[in-house]
Amino acid sequence: MQTWLRVSQKVHTTNQVVVGAIVGSVYSTLLYITWNSLVLEAFASSFSVQVAVFTAAAASALGFAVYVLLNWFKDDDI
Predict the structure, then answer these.
(1) Under a CB-based contact definition with an 8 Å cutoff, are residues 39 and 53 in contact?
(2) Domain that holds residue 59
(3) Looking at residue 77, what is its pLDDT?
(4) Is pLDDT of 63 > 90?
(5) Does residue 54 share a domain with residue 32?
(6) Mind spelling out the 3-state secondary structure of 6-71?
(7) Are residues 54 and 35 in the same domain?
(8) pTM for the whole thing?
(9) Mean pLDDT to the nearest integer, 38-59
(10) Average pLDDT of 74-78?
(11) Does residue 19 sit in the same domain as residue 51?
């Protein structure tokens, strides 16, 4: 539904949406494989790895939120 909306509102072309879907699928597959082969065992067995992963995820989410808030009202006509 979201992809059709992006094309129908002329935010993206069909080709852009298809490439985005392919890139997103490949990236998520690689992330899943990497997590299962490199991180999962260490994450399950080590509290310090759990803390490190949680801290990195929280920092990423916070950084993204700050970025969005700081750029929310910027003028797009530069």
Answers:
(1) yes
(2) 46-77
(3) 57
(4) yes
(5) no
(6) HHHCCCCCHHHHHHHHHHHHHHHHHHHHHHHHHHHHHHHHCHHHHHHHHHHHHHHHHHHHHHHHHH
(7) no
(8) 0.56
(9) 91
(10) 63
(11) no
Residues 21-45: what's their mean pLDDT? 91
20 and 56 share one domain: no
Give yes or no: residues 65 and 54 share one domain. Answer: yes
Q: Are both 32 and 55 inside the same structural domain?
A: no
Q: Give the Cα separation of 77 and 1 in Å (integer).
A: 29
Contacts for 20 with CB less than 8 Å, ≥ 6 apart? 12
Question: What is the average pLDDT value for the chain, to the nearest integer?
Answer: 88
* DSSP letter assigned to residue 75: -
Report the percentage of the chain scoring pLDDT > 90: 46
